[in-house]
Amino acid sequence: TQTEKNGHKHFMAKEIAEQPIVIADAIRSYLPSGGDQVVLPGADLDFTKLDRLTMVACGTAFYACLTAKYWFEQLAQMPVEVDIASEFRYREPPITGRTMALFVSQSGETADTLAALRYCEGKADKIVSVVNVPESSIARESDIALPIHAGVEIGVASTKAFTCQLSVLLMMALKAAADRGTLTDDELADHYAALRGLPTVMNAALDQNPAIKTSAQRLSEARDVLFLGRGLMYPLAMEGALKLKEISYVHAEGYASGELKHGPIALIDKNMPVVVMAPRDTVFDKTVSNMQEVMARKGKVILVSDDDGIAEAEDGVWSIIRMPHVHSSLTPILYSVPAQLLAYHTAVAKGTDVDQPRNLAKSVTVE
Ligand code: G6P
């Protein structure tokens, strides 16, 4: 059942393993089998009537929003702003034009996110939330509440809720692209087919668990770890770093690969593991040259990539995590698996309390 570990050592391990199933549920409920369009459950939303999107969240949900910004901009050509709820609510940002305010929250009870939503009432054209708990305050106070179907999440560090949030946000972006005519029918059909195949590919990523565990052993000996990514992998680099610090207490930072030169490169030496998230995509070559800058300074690179990327770039890397090939828009969902498992195995190796890390709460209902 949802509230037992079902043979896993920790809830987090169980929730990571459950992702192919819950993502399949989420995909089925927005992309009905046999259908050829995204249907937002219970929501009559026309993206041609909206000009911009303001997304607000905290923690892991914030990184889901940052990822979605790339999707809404690239696929649907919609301008998007993303903010942390605690900053947004006090800045008094003007909300102009035809704006959708979109709040992402696993619990639906995070105090800052709820306050940000209330700030948008009467200002935004539509208040929409993407939540895991349909009865939550954030869901109730939204015009439209879209469920992510992750099921109960008990581990304090969010895993399956994150990938379900991403899946739902991607399907929203595809709905926006279809409404606004920014993708062709063939392009849309490619995305839908790739989404329907995602649970199978997620299983293949989970099969890499032994290799990820070996790399994590190395991380557990580090004091600081840097995560690098470009494009869609940049928010995931930050999420990977967040996961690692939350549960293993190893200091980690996520950086855009292109910003390496503007600061973090000063930290690189032989003691610094650098996790490079880099599927063989359109920005791959640039990321590889950043990775070489790390290796030239004796930094220890853990490369997470697919067969093509590994064949091109494996020379000199310290450790390799091989991911299956997937449609380029799905890489943040797929590459979440190694990000989560690296943090998980590092924490297990260090003997920390994986499901209940010190000082953290599952849901922050006070400011
Ligand atoms: C806490 C949790 C995080 C979560 C964040 C936002 O910090 O420990 O895992 O991402 O709150 O929570 P929400 O329920 O709004 O997604």
Please give a structural write-up.
With 367 residues, the protein is of the alpha/beta class. 46% of the residues lie in helices and 15% in strands. It contains 14 helices and 10 strands. The chain has helices at 11-17, 19-30, 59-76, 85-91, 111-120, 137-140, 160-180, 185-206, 209-219, 233-248, 284-296, 307-313, 331-334, 336-350, and strands at residues 52-57, 80-84, 99-105, 126-131, 144-147, 224-229, 251-256, 273-277, 300-305, 319-322. It has a 5-stranded parallel sheet, sandwiched between helices. Strands 7-6-8-9-10 form a 5-stranded parallel sheet, sandwiched between helices. Helix 10 (233-248) links the parallel strand 6 (224-229) and strand 7. The two termini are 33 Å apart. The site of 6-O-phosphono-alpha-D-glucopyranose (G6P) has 16 residues, from helix 3.
Count of individual beta strands: 10
Report the radius of gyration as a whole number of Å.
20 Å
Series of H and E elements: HHEHEHEHEHEHHHEHEEHEHEHH
Number of helices: 14
- Shape descriptor reads globular
**Most strands sheet:** 5 strands, parallel
Measured between the Cα atoms of the first and last residue, the distance is 33 Å
Could you tell me the strand content as a percent range?
Answer: 5-15%
> Would you identify the regions where 5 or more consecutive residues have pLDDT less than 50?
none
The structure class reads alpha/beta
- Helicity range: 40-55%
Bound molecules: 6-O-phosphono-alpha-D-glucopyranose
Mean pLDDT across residues? 96
